[in-house]
Amino acid sequence: MSQERFDALLSQLCKALPRDAAADVRERGLLSVDGHDVLIDLWSDDACRILVDLGLPPGGADSRFFRRLLALNLDAESDAVPVLGLEAASGHIVAIVQQPLEVLEQQNDGLACLIMRQLPEWVPHWRALLAHQAADVPADADALVAGWIEMRP
């Protein structure tokens, strides 16, 4: 049943996309949003998982940067706040968002809204966070998390 619910959400998303992009979403779950690769898949039985490639770590990233990145993940107590990780093969930072299918279904075009409207606002927010962390500027994690929660669907 969850696969059918997920497929229905993907179909709604595909209606809002150009034909080429919709084909990639249907076949591979891949989409490009503002130049960032986005992977959409079914996670467990009741959640949609969205992975966003944020690119290579900013210049100047060192072990302190990665420690701060991990510390920010601890501050992300809500399942709506992305977890930041490192993709081993490419070395790229990846943001991972999980949304319950029920939440996405309750909103009109919930997945499409998240992908097409929220991600373009959200990605620069987290890229700025990464730049601050690489520059060794202390981040106000509570404010960053609150900002993300306000932007989520």
Structure explained in plain terms:
With 153 residues, the protein is α+β, with helices and mostly antiparallel strands. 52% of the residues lie in helices and 22% in strands. The protein is built from six helices and five strands; from the N terminus they run H-H-E-E-E-H-E-E-H-H-H. A five-stranded antiparallel beta sheet has the order 1-2-3-5-4. Strand 2 (36-43) and strand 3 (47-55) form a beta hairpin. It is globular and about 45 Å long. The model has no long low-confidence stretch (mean pLDDT 82).
What is the H-and-E element order? HHEEEHEEHHH
Q: Tell me, briefly, the overall form.
A: globular
As laid out across the biggest beta sheet, the strand order is 1-2-3-5-4
Structural classification: alpha+beta
Oligomer: single chain
Report the β-strand fraction as a percent range: 15-25%
**DSSP strand count:** 5
What would the average pLDDT be, to the nearest integer?
Answer: 82
Q: Could you name the ranges where pLDDT drops below 50 across 5 or more consecutive residues?
A: none
Span between N and C termini?
Answer: 23 Å
- Give the fraction of residues assigned to helices: 40-55%
Total helical elements: 6
Biggest pleated-sheet summary: 5 strands, antiparallel
Rg calc: 16 Å
